[in-house]
Design goal:
By secondary structure, this protein is an alpha/beta fold. It contains 14 helices and 11 strands. The strands form 2 sheets. Strands 1-7-6-5-4-2-3 form a 7-stranded mixed beta sheet, with helices on both faces. A hairpin with a 2-residue loop joins strand 10 and strand 11. Bound molecules: pyridoxal-5'-phosphate.
Length: 472
């Protein structure tokens, strides 16, 4: 493709992108294709001869788009959002155009220094301790893995890195029953072992019970285990419960245990001073993550990971073969030493673009609106006697179920609500996801989409009520 051809295609592609973003609310939110539908339309072998870009674009529209679930639709209320915004997309275009691989400071000094500055901006915006240093990771799962491995190394005097797991005794990691599965995955793959993850019971509001944590640690010590790390969650995936950081932090501090905080989605709410209570006890936090790629209008992927003792992180991950030696080593941040992959994308650019385009006040306004929509939805649900709220509504997630009068059998209610969820999602008009809380099939509606308005929430709620009552 010549530069002139590129120019022509790029201009028409931008038209395609703008039209998509304008119309995203008109697509069926959840793709209705069946397994294999897309695969079977793609030739079994690559073309031998060059094809025009126009045929690629035709297949994008005809083959690929029907198989896309529209996460940027304002009627997308499922999971946690992976919201985006035009300034983020524009910056990603630049990142792809530059094609820089930013493993070292030297391989793109601007990428390393902008990343360092963006992490300072985010630290200040969220009110995290000034001593913490930040780095962008690809995902919360990777950041949690990096935190647990660093905790593992710190407690074993960096022995496991050198001599393997058998040298260090049996390490234990703790999280609540409601913690995200990425914690279990990290413990499973980092050599500590899934059976050494202790899931602590939760209180009525689904947050970790610190007394149960304290007891579990004591019990483990008396059995000869080595407590290593507690992963607390600020904003659990199921219901956005907030674990009590101060109480947990005091226990960690008393026992010399690493405290990692997973605030993947809810961390964005810390840009609001009224939500800083969620990290009361922040002085105890050793590492912390949140995902601007969930709720801060920065397209996937971008996890902000903060750590108090960056030297331990670097000592855990650094490796220096001859071909990576540079003259600036030690004087700059070589972020390849701050996590698992060597190669790194220039992710700071989209954060810079998003924060500058909205301004911190603009970001706060949007986040506050999303939180208000969830509070309004809760009020609307409470007005209907045949629905019930199943968890406290703290941020932007509302957990509820349909509770038709005369049915009190839990298994039947679970089946009805599961059917309701599938019927709604198959309609293409909205997309909800579910969890199970206290054994109850729970519908989760998340009001965190970039362009969601109260009208979208009201329309969705009307459809939910009508669909539920028509199922009965
Ligand atoms: N932690 C929590 C609380 C989450 O809700 C999620 C995903 O929804 C994750 C971690 C994993 O996020 P990622 O996809 O960035 O690994």
């Amino acid at each position: 493709m010549t530069a002139d051809e590129f120019r022509v295609h790029a201009h028409s592609l931008v038209e395609w992108m703008a039209a998509y973003l304008e119309n995203v609310g008109n697509y069926p939110v959840k793709s209705a294709v069946k397994p294999g539908d897309i695969f079977n339309q793609i030739p079994g072998a690559p073309p031998q001869e060059a094809e025009p870009f126009s045929s690629f674009m035709r297949d994008l529209d005809e083959v690929i788009m029907p198989g896309i679930t529209h996460w940027q639709s304002p009627d997308f209320f499922a999971y946690f959002p992976a919201n985006s915004s035009p300034p983020s997309v524009l910056a990603e275009m630049i990142t792809a155009t530059l094609g820089a691989q930013c493993m070292n400071w030297e391989t793109s000094p601007a990428a390393a220094e902008l990343e360092e500055k963006m992490m300072i901006w985010l630290r200040e915006m969220t009110g995290l301790p000034a001593e913490m240093e930040g780095v962008i990771q690809d995902s919360a799962s990777t950041a949690t893995l990096a935190a647990i491995i660093t905790a593992r190394e710190k407690i074993s005097g960096f022995e496991i890195n050198n001599n393997g797991a058998s040298s260090a005794g049996v390490l234990r990691v703790y999280c609540s029953e409601q913690a995200h599965s990425s914690v279990e995955k990290a413990v499973k793959i980092c050599g500590i072992g899934r059976s050494n993850l202790v899931k602590i019971t939760v209180r009525e509001d689904f947050s970790m019970d610190p007394a149960a944590l304290d007891k579990a640690i004591d019990d483990d010590r008396s059995k000869g285990f080595l407590p290593c790390c507690v992963v607390a969650t600020v904003g659990t995936t199921g219901s956005t419960a907030v674990d009590p950081i101060k109480a947990i932090g005091e226990i960690c501090s008393r026992n010399g245990i690493w405290l990692h905080v997973d605030a993947a989605m809810a961390g964005t709410a810390l840009i609001l001073p009224e939500f800083r209570w969620m990290i009361n006890g922040k002085e105890y936090i050793d590492s912390f993550l949140f995902n601007p790629h969930k709720w801060m209008f920065t397209n996937f992927d971008c996890t902000a990971f903060f750590i108090r003792d960056a030297d331990s992180l670097i000592r855990t991950f650094e490796i220096l073969p001859e071909y990576l030696k540079t003259r600036t080593r030690g004087a700059v941040n070589d972020y390849r030493d701050w996590g698992i992959p060597l190669g790194r994308r220039f992710r700071a650019l989209k954060l810079w673009s998003v924060i500058r385009s909205y301004g911190t006040e603009g970001l706060r306004n949007k986040i506050r609106q999303h939180i208000e929509f969830a509070a309004k939805l809760k009020e609307m649900i409470l007005e209907e006697p045949d629905f019930e709220i199943l968890a406290p509504v703290l941020i932007n997630v509302v957990c509820f179920r349909y509770l038709p009068s005369g049915i009190d059998n839990e298994a039947t209610l679970n089946l009805i609500n599961e059917k309701l969820n599938h019927t709604l999602n198959d309609s293409g008009k909205l997309y909800l996801s579910h969890t199970v809380l206290d054994g109850k099939y729970t519908l989760r509606m998340v009001t965190g989409q970039t362009n969601v308005t109260l009208a979208h929430v009201e329309k969705a709620w009307k459809l939910i009520m009508e669909t539920a009552r028509s199922l009965a």
